[in-house]
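Need residues for this backbone.
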């Protein structure tokens, strides 16, 4: 049932091979030394103390972005980087944070492009100032256009297509795609991808993701009014638990599936409360973004050849839940 996207794994193996210089016996020793140094909280390199800023569209308390940040900080410790993290779920405020990083004359910027049009001028300003930019998680379709060196993340349409295929294999006929942030292009792409491959009926439900009671009541009302809905797909791990509560209140038997992982999702998969999840490896997104910026500053290296460096999608279900729990609890998955 669960299908691992081997092409993504191959791409990542190549990326990690470069970033960790672990493709030979000598490289392997260097990689091991780097891991030991990072674990001890010290740099594994002797390059200058560069400053990198990461600015994301995360809201407060978003566990997904906590994991991205943890991955970035881990790479920053290894690479002797002074790492600055800031976030705002309002696009204009996020753009202002990018402008502030440019004004500080940082040595590199990592930015998510959930609402790319609002970030375009700020990213262009960074590029014009000679600051290398890498985009992460959202905005792969606009990354190259904006002048970024690379994009790290999953292709949201491809991820949605994987979900549609999984729903087909599970025999679902009427699915509900719950969008919790209007205007987020990545969320629309996910639902578009599901619609592309799903052979059943796909409905969309827009909710206010900053208000969990509103999310629950919206899903509950839909499940009560349409008993034919047999699958609910949420677009973020925190919303899966809310969808489970809505299902119980509505007396529905719909399967709850979700994009992204956290400890609750892994537990839900293990216990059969959730059907499956889509893992895009947020820890790796943060880690690789910092590491690729370091490689560019150090050796003018780039990855991707103008295409995204993919970290997903990977469909996971009950079979993988037990092993995933250890990683989600330590904040790396």
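Answer:
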């Amino acid at each position: 049932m669960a299908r691992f996207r081997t092409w993504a794994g191959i791409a990542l193996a190549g990326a990690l091979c470069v970033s960790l210089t672990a493709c030979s016996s000598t490289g392997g020793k260097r990689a091991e030394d780097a891991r030991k140094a990072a674990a001890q909280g010290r740099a594994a390199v002797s390059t200058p103390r560069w400053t990198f800023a990461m600015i994301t569209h995360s809201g407060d308390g978003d566990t997904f972005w906590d994991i991205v940040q943890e991955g970035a900080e881990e790479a920053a410790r290894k690479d002797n980087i002074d790492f600055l993290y800031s976030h705002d779920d309002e696009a204009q405020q996020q753009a202002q944070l990018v402008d502030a990083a440019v004004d500080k004359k940082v040595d590199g910027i990592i930015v998510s492009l959930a609402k790319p049009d609002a970030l375009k001028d700020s990213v262009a300003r960074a590029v014009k100032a000679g600051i290398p930019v890498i985009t992460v998680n959202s905005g792969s379709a606009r990354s190259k256009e904006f002048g970024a060196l690379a994009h790290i993340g999953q292709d949201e349409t491809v991820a949605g297509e994987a979900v549609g295929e999984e729903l087909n294999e599970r025999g679902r006929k009427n699915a509900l795609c719950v969008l919790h942030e209007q205007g987020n292009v990545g969320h629309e792409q996910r639902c578009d991808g599901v619609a592309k491959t799903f052979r059943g009926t796909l409905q969309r439900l827009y909710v206010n993701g900053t208000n969990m009671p509103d999310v629950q009541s919206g899903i509950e009302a839909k499940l009560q009014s349409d008993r034919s809905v047999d699958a609910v797909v949420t677009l973020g791990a925190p919303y899966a638990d809310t969808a489970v509560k809505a299902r119980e209140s509505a007396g529905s038997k719909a399967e709850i599936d979700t994009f992204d992982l956290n400890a609750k999702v892994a537990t839900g998969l293990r216990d059969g409360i959730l059907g499956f999840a889509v893992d895009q490896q947020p820890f790796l997104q943060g880690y690789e973004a910092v590491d690729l910026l370091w490689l560019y500053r150090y050796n003018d290296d780039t990855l991707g050849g103008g295409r995204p460096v993919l970290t997903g999608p990977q469909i996971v279900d009950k079979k993988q839940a037990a092993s995933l729990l250890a990683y989600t609890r330590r904040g790396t998955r």
